[in-house]
């Protein structure tokens, strides 16, 4: 009996240690280790391992899921080939599989611009607005698998695109793209799925939004929490949070009042960014005022007044002597890694910009680079998703 209990405890401990190692490792490294270790390979090839790992990581950000940046310099309208920069080895050539993906799709950033929508390793890009003034098309890709799908424009005049993903339990990931337009107190949405309706946009759905000022507009990117899309919206009167459930076609509004509402007045779209907590349950709001970045967290009240503030970045911690600027742009939020990508604009259009990452969990600032003006450089962060790296070992290796 004692031997049996000892064996059971050892087994449980081994799995616990394995999950902890996996939670602290990047997926690529873990798969490489598994290829050289039969016991590790057997455990992570087990269909039950992947859900347990997701559950283990559900209550905190995992910085190691951040992989790096897509970079494409466009000096003097001379477009250089795109590349991928690994933060651990920034001076080395693009690692695989990014190198092969960019070789096959070297013009992707010439025609598509980061919509800053990403989920589980997928990235959505937005095409140039047609000269006819219609809605732009989009492109969804996964550089880890080589998947690429160019999607035609929706019927509505989309102000924002949302990428919704679902896991079938076998490590595969299915997605839907939602186009959204807010006008006259109604949210118009259209859905696109690559496996439904012969890959066509579905009919327009209209959802009442109240209260909603006539000039209210969606500020993209949207934040997806527990399957619902959430936008920060602005109007000439006030800002508010709009939560949309596509499953029920229902929308709810939370007006932002009080000190937080006053703080948002006059702020440009690039100075505001919705982020989540580590559990992906509640929206939080980043606000850049000059060179200071603050995090606003809502309470459980519904009156819009219950917001508390924490200063995450002080001006002296990021001031750059040769970048004479007092303006920050909050560019991107990684829902899994917890990183925020920030640009400090140069003093004028021809000045260098400074790019850095803010790690929400530790409030640390990590320098990325100094680069050309915004219109001369594509700089797009990328984080992996757990659903795309579950390894498939051959019978001989198992």
Automatic annotation (TrEMBL):
Coiled coil: none annotated. Signal peptide: none annotated. Pfam families: DUF7595 (PF24523). Residues 105-347 form the DUF7595 domain. This is DUF7595 domain-containing protein. The lineage of its organism: Eukaryota, Viridiplantae, Streptophyta, Embryophyta, Tracheophyta.
């Amino acid at each position: 009996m004692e031997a049996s209990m000892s064996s059971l405890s050892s087994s449980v401990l081994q799995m616990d240690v394995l999950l902890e190692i996996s939670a602290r490792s990047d997926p690529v490294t873990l798969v490489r280790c598994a290829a050289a270790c039969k016991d590790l390979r057997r455990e992570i090839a087990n269909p039950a391992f992947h859900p347990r790992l997701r559950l283990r990581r559900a209550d905190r950000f995992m910085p190691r899921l951040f992989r790096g940046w897509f970079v494409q310099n466009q000096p003097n309208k001379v477009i250089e080939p795109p590349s991928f920069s690994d933060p651990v080895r920034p001076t080395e050539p693009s690692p695989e599989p990014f190198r092969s993906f960019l070789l096959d799709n070297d013009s992707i950033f010439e025609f598509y611009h980061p919509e800053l929508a990403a989920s589980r390793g997928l990235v959505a890009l937005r095409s140039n607005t047609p000269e006819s003034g219609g809605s732009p098309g989009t492109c969804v890709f996964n550089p880890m698998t080589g998947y690429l799908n160019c999607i035609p424009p929706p019927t509505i005049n989309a102000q924002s695109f949302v990428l919704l993903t679902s896991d079938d339990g076998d490590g595969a990931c299915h997605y839907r793209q939602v186009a959204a337009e807010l006008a006259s107190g109604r949210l118009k949405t259209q859905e696109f799925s690559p496996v439904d309706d012969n890959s066509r946009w579905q009919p327009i759905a209209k959802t009442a939004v109240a209260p909603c000022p006539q000039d209210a507009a969606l500020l993209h990117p949207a934040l997806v929490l527990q399957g619902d899309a959430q936008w920060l919206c602005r109007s000439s009167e006030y800002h508010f949070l709009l939560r949309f459930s596509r499953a029920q076609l229902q929308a709810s509004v939370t007006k932002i009042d009080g000190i937080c509402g006053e703080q948002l007045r006059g702020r440009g779209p690039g100075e505001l960014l919705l982020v989540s907590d580590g559990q992906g349950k509640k929206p939080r709001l980043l606000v850049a005022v000059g060179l200071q970045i603050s995090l606003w967290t809502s309470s459980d009240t519904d009156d819009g007044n219950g917001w508390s503030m924490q200063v995450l970045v002080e001006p002296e911690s990021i001031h750059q002597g040769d970048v004479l600027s007092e303006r920050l742009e909050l560019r991107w939020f990684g829902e899994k890694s917890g990183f925020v990508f920030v640009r400090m604009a140069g003093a004028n259009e021809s000045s260098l910009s400074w790019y850095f990452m803010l790690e929400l969990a530790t409030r640390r600032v990590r320098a990325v680079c100094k680069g050309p003006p915004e219109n001369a450089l594509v700089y797009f962060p990328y984080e992996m998703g757990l659903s795309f790296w579950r390894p498939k070992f051959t019978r001989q290796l198992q």
